[in-house]
Amino acid sequence: xxxxxxxxxxxxxxxxxxxxxxxxxxxxxxxxxxxxxxxxxxxxxxxxxxxxxxxxxxxxxxxxxxxxxxxxxxxxxxxxxxxxxxxxxxxxxxxxxxxxxxxxxxxxxxxxxxxxxxxxxxxxxxxxxxxxxxxxxxxxxxxxxxxxxxxxxxxxxxxxxxxxxxxxxxxxxxxxxxxxxxxxxxxxxxxxxxxxxxxxxxxxxxxxxxxxxxxxxxxxxxxxxxxxxxxxxxxxxxxxxxxxxxxxxxxxxxxxxxxxxxxxxxxxxxxxxxxxxxxxxxxxxxxxxxxxxxxxxxxxxxxxxxxxxxxxxxxxxxxxxxxxxxxxxxxxxxxxxxxxxxxxxxxxxxxxxxxxxxxxxxxxxxxxxxxxxxxxxxxxxxxxxxxxxxxxxxxxxxxxxxxxxxxxxxxxxxxxxxxxxxxxxxxxxxxxxxxxxxxxxxxxxxxxxxxxxxxxxxxxxxxxxxxxxxxxxxxxxxxxxxxxxxxxxxxxxxxxxxxxxxxxxxxxxxxxxxxxxxxxxxxxxxxxxxxxxxxxxxxxxxxxxxxxxxxxxxxxxxxxxxxxxxxxxxxxxxxxxxxxxxxxxxxxxxxxxxxxxxxxxxxxxxxxxxxxxxxxxxxxxxxxxxxxxxxxxxxxxxxxxxxxxxxxxxxxxxxxxxxxxxxxxxxxxxxxxxxxxxxxxxxxxxxxxxxxxxxxxxxxxxxxxxxxxxxxxxxxxxxxxxxxxxxxxxxxxxxxxxxxxxxxxxxxxxxxxxxxxxxxxxxxxxxxxxxxxxxxxxxxxxxxxxxxxxxxxxxxxxxxxxxxxxxxxxxxxxxxxxxxxxxxxxxxxxxxxxxxxxxxxxxxxxxxxxxxxxxxxxxxxxxxxxxxxxxxxxxxxxxxxxxxxxxxxxxxxxxxxxxxxxxxxxxxxxxxxxxxxxxxxxxxxxxxxxxxxxxxxxxxxxxxxxxxxxxxxxxxxxxxxxxxxxxxxxxxxxxxxxxxxxxxxxxxxxxxxxxxx
Length: 997
Description:
The chain is an alpha+beta fold. The chain starts with a strand and ends with a strand.
């Protein structure tokens, strides 16, 4: 992890925004954060910690005064930290909570804390999170360091530098726990203690269960009076079981003896129950027999009374039996008499019907000798006339059909004529459209040609416009060139004049210094006949200024000449592209080309539309041809339908004329014939029915007379008098049958009862019932006693078995509890753990050994081989926790001593070595992350010059691998040795500023 940039505003002593670029110190590898005491050097580290983790270590547990006291109410408070890891480059912007002026209503309102996280991508800074919880989660994944780990491996903050070295075992454990996250081992210890408590409670509960089972069994022995010896009689009382034994085994043995007595008593009570049950069964059988005899006695008396009543009804039953016999004999003749009566009535009705049929036939006035032949002839004719009736009724529809067919023929002929006219006009339309299309195609074929002409014309017009513009620019450029040439010549002349004047001035100056008889410094002559006149002096600066003006004029002349040449080249190129056309000529040609191209495009569209029209006309031609075929077929079909309709109408007219005869219509003739046929058929039917009925009446009378002759009755009147309705016959039959059945039943029952020789006096059941009740009560009491004793025995056996099982499992639980208790005590530093080291302490001791080894690699060089740290697991005084001690081995004395005995400088060097070793181990445990930035706050003031050199060499070693080390100190010697510095300076009005050099 490498810090790149820090911005602080309204934070700590910094009111205005201060910016620190850590990348500026990357080449030096080490830089000093210097400043007077209280200026705010440590506040830089506070800002880094606050930006990344939202907190400052110096304010833990107290008031968090993060906002600058120098800030005005409207001033913002913000910290921006920019850093990078192997996963990318990030920027955190965080603001603390503070009071600001309310926007409405006056007064102050709380400005909530805010934070955001951004990542640098190819598209710039992109936001990743904007809520405190989300930013914390993202930073956990990015940094892979907690705040405690960050303060131990990157920010070695003030007041924490020697904390780890001088801390006690308990404080050192708390620090290491935060760094290495070993709370889980404390959780393991807590879980084992909880398991030990649960096991102890379970064992106690099981022992209590055994005792409760034994107590309950002993109470049952006392309540069931089982505390007697097997040889005692029922009245002898032995001592109670409860309290007889002093151990669980003794109590179980005494209870087993009581269980044997309970089993013996249950067997005896079961035998008593069987004996009582036998006596109850004998008494119950005697009671049932007495009750049966009593019932039989009552039944016998009832049967005797019934026989007396039936004998008295015998005469009336005999009369009913004789009446029933005559009714049944008459019933045999009922059907014959009724049939003869019905046949005579039917014959009379048939004769009357025949007379009415003869009268109706006579009224028709038809003369015929053979009525059957007449009916057959008229029926045949009616069948022929029926078809004529139908044809006669269909005459209107046939007329309509004929008219429709004629109209269809006319319509089909008209469609054929119309189609012929359309087909005749179509070829001319197709020829005209084809001619228009061909003309348009000839124009459209020149679209590409006119497009090329239009493009060339556009290029020429554009070139002509450009040439006209360039001509104007060339004229202006030539004028500028002429002016620049004149200016350059003037500047050159002025420079030459100044140079001449400079030379003349120098000659005059030399001449003024000439002395007679003294050599000239130029020619060496001693005579000076014509000394130069000393005029106005021209300095070298004047010459230089004139040269600058001359050079500037020459540059402007060269630039103007270049511009003029460029414009002339462009003008020649534009004139060539314009092909000698001026703007007006080129415009006319362009307009003509555009018009021609537009006309060609329109012709192409016209040709396309004419193609569509031609396609439609050809489709119409095909459709008309198809319609011609269809119309001709429809005309032929219509003519055929008309011929058929005419034929059917003519045939129907001839058939109707033949069937009508002299009548007004066929229907009238058919109706009259149908009526005559109906009368004739009724006459034939009446004659046949009368003959059949007379024959049936004769046969029924003969059958009736034969039946009377064979019966006991003299005539029909006697038979009618003897007949009875079926219901009366059924009632008489039931009366006779019931009397006979009851008499036979009662006689048989009385016969069986008389054979039993029952007493004549009523039987008394009271003594027998009382004996049965007494036997039942004795049996019930025996059953209850046997059930109770058996239940007591079973319950006592169950309690003893349950107590035995629980007692057996108690031994297993006790053994498991001892193992668990020993393990829990060992993990918690109790019992046989003589060093009082918990499991967490044991794990942290291993980590501490690695930290001490890493620290010793630097402490050996820093102390010139004198000091070496050692991990100590010695038992602490008064039984305190141990296992995380650190002692210092002094090679000069060969003894170990506590870190508190070191001097201030020795403590600083040792703390620095231990802090660096701790940083290495924590870094390795955090996944081997790379630490490219390290800060060390204070402590160097306690070192002498030699020791300070040793410390500086150690810091130089930390720079290896591209690491940047920031040191906070006000020691002047370090300011001299470290050129790269951040200076924190307090302004006279209070706030501080950060200066880099």
